[in-house]
Design a protein that fits this description.
9 strands, five-stranded parallel beta sheet, single chain, Rossmann fold, 238 residues, 19% strand, binds flavin mononucleotide, alpha/beta, Alpha-Beta Plaits, two-stranded antiparallel sheet, 2 domains
Length: 238
């Protein structure tokens, strides 16, 4: 565990931003804590801190803005978010201004689209479906590797998977094994592993039920069509 780095992040809406946090934390091998814990913790021992949340009315979560007040000019911070809007615009300005006021060095910022079912998006049953997706998570990992090369560990992702990924946050609780209707997962060496990816229907039950946000699925249109083809003769669950 990297004791010099920390990520403060919470998702209050769709678990979108916490997926980015998990991807980044897997490269930094650091802990993720929520807003309340961060507000109660002495953060001064961390050299590098990532601050992330969804964007809610053009800014980060107000509790994350409060966390900034606990930081000092000896620390480096990266800022990240997910948002419904296709463009980031100036959504990071408020937190960056606050960091600047505290004299905290900002080493980079990152944002991707996140699933949003508010306002006009309701008409389409939500915008940015499936976001952040696997490619976004890869970009998040590359981002931390680029801005903090000295803190990044070698990637050891599951080599065989093409679309279903178990990340290193997995604690082997076997929730994915029990919720997956297709028996895609098994536990090996106290970790979930993908036993038969071709059976996966991309229903996302594993992703939404994983308490550690350790599973992600890449939903490419090509693969989704392949799933329909592979399962076309299937009748019943067994
Ligand atoms: C109350 C509320 C306000 C939001 N305001 C904005 C906004 O001003 N701009 C935007 O691009 N997205 C906005 N969104 C969409 C969220 O930023 C987006 O869904 C984000 O991915 C949620 O992150 P989370 O799942 O980590 O909480 C809003 C969502 C909610 C629920």
């Amino acid at each position: 565990m990297n004791e010099k780095a920390l990520i403060v992040c919470e998702s209050i809406y769709n678990n979108n931003t916490i997926k980015l946090a998990s991807a980044m934390a897997s490269r930094l091998e650091c802990k993720i804590i929520g807003f309340d814990e961060a507000l109660e913790t002495d953060l001064t021992s961390y050299k590098v801190i990532g601050l992330g949340s969804g964007i809610y009315f053009k800014e980060h979560h107000p509790k994350l803005m409060k966390v900034v007040e606990k930081l000092n000019d000896q620390q480096r911070v990266f800022v990240f978010s997910t948002r419904g809007n296709p463009k980031l615009g100036n959504y990071h300005e408020a937190i960056k201004n606050k960091l600047n006021e505290q004299g905290v060095k900002i080493c980079g910022e990152f944002s991707t689209k996140g699933y949003d079912r508010t306002g006009p998006f309701v008409i389409f049953n939500g915008g940015n479906k499936g976001r952040p997706h696997e490619a976004d998570l890869m970009k998040a990992k590359k981002f931390v590797a680029r801005v903090l090369p000295q803190y990044v560990y070698e990637e050891k992702e599951t080599p065989k998977s093409r679309n279903v990924f178990v990340h290193r946050e997995c604690v082997g609780c076997a929730k994915c094994v029990s919720v997956c209707p297709m028996g895609v997962f098994e536990i090996k060496n106290n970790r979930a592993t993908v036993k038969n990816e071709l059976d996966c229907t991309h229903c996302d039950l594993c992703v939404t039920n994983c308490q550690k946000h350790a599973i992600s699925i890449k939903h490419s249109n090509k693969e989704l069509i392949q799933i329909a083809i592979r399962h076309k003769n299937k009748v019943g669950l067994s």
